[in-house]
Amino acid sequence: MTGGKSPCCSGSRDMVEESTVDVDSEFSGTRSSKTTETRTRRMVKIEGNSFTMGTDSKVGYRADGEGPTREVTIDPFFIDKYAVTNAEFLKFVRETEYVTDAERFGWSFVFEDFVRPRDKDKVIQKVSGAPWWVAVRGANWFRPEGPSSNVLDTRLVHPVTHVSWRDATAYANWAGKRLPTEAEWEYAGRGGLEQTRFPWGDDLQPDGEHMCNIWQGEFPKTNTDADGFIKTAPVNEFPANGYGLYNVSGNVWEWCQDWFSADYHTTDSFDSVNPSGPPDGDQRVMRGGSYLCHRSWCNRYRVAARSKNTPDSSTGNLGFRCVVDL
Questions:
Q1: How far apart are CA 231 and CA 52, in angstroms?
Q2: Contact assessment for residue 315 and residue 109, using Cβ atoms and an 8 Å cutoff
């Protein structure tokens, strides 16, 4: 596992000493036999179109490759209204007996303040440069804060977390879907708006209303819970964007299909029609920000913002949604 240092918004397995394990490189799963109508029941159809991708705003992170803006054209597709839930992932696991990367490695990343007292002895290591991320033995999608927690309490309709890119790909394959390309994700996430900072406009809280689940207060010390959630929120919480997608900004980061590059879109190899990123790389793209994002540390809950992580990494603020080709 290789790759550069991840930003503060997520922990990466290549930062932890106990990250070597014999894990298969391919996760094909069993493809669903569901009809297109069944598969797209909780999805919205996005018409093919051209749009201006990225941003040239000074608010953006130049090193992340948010700019320069470029005209991109995409074909029509269906995309999930919501991030995949714990209930949906539970059904997948029960039907396939799939074992996630976090379970294979035996640990995953948890925000330090969420580790329960009885699980403190399960902390393996803190992430250098982002000590609020701790590797916790026994943390996984079903036990998101460690061995003494589980998602059956009140979180079945919350987004599944602690899923690696490979786990998300396995689920998508089983469901007869796939992960969105970064261009598809951004176009759908904008909800029909061009070059606004957020899916609903440029004001984070229009008329004082909270539109997404992010951190309020002083990160990482104090979260005032002003938006009503300290951790994840239900996938249908907060208003949908113009295309009917929920929680595009905040709640959980969402895996995309593409390998990450900060400059591939500026090269001659870049194809502006249905772009799918570079042909290879060390880390995959994540989009949307999470409940841990705050403007002082990770102002990446903007619709043009992007981040990255290794395909085998999993954290308590990283999930996904799927798409289906027309």
A1: 32
A2: yes
Q: How many CB atoms lie within 10 A of CB 87?
A: 16
C-beta of residue 9 within 8 angstroms of C-beta of residue 317: yes
CA-CA distance, 111 to 149, in Å (whole number)? 14
User: What separation in angstroms does the CA of 298 have from each of 49, 107, 157, 260, 266?
Assistant: 30, 24, 26, 18, 24
CA distances from residue 78 to 151, 244, 281, 325 in whole angstroms, order as listed: 28, 12, 27, 6
pLDDT at residue 230, rounded to an integer: 97
Which H helix or E strand runs over 36? helix 36-39
Structure tokens, 53: 């991708």
pLDDT tens string 67-106: 999 999 999 999 999 999 999 999 999 999 999 999 999 9
Residue 192 CA to residue 241 CA, distance in Å, equals 8
Q: Which two tokens stand for residue 243?
A: 């295309």
Residue 204 Cα distances to 139, 253, 323, angstroms: 33, 18, 27
The total number of residues shown for the chain amounts to 326
Percentage of residues in the chain with pLDDT exceeding 70?
91
Burial of 133 (0-12, 13-18, 19+ CB in 10 A): buried
Residue 1, pLDDT score: 30
Q: What is the mean pLDDT of residues 117-138?
A: 94
Placement of tokens 């330090």 in the chain: 112
Partners of 306 in the beta sheet? 287
Beta bridge partners of 284: 259, 309
Dist CA 68 CA 107 (whole Å)? 38
Distance CA 195, CA 101 (A): 36
Exposed, middle or buried: residue 249 (CB in 10 Å: 0-12, 13-18, 19+)? buried
Position 20 pLDDT exceeds 70: no
Q: How far apart are CA 183 and CA 278, in angstroms?
A: 13
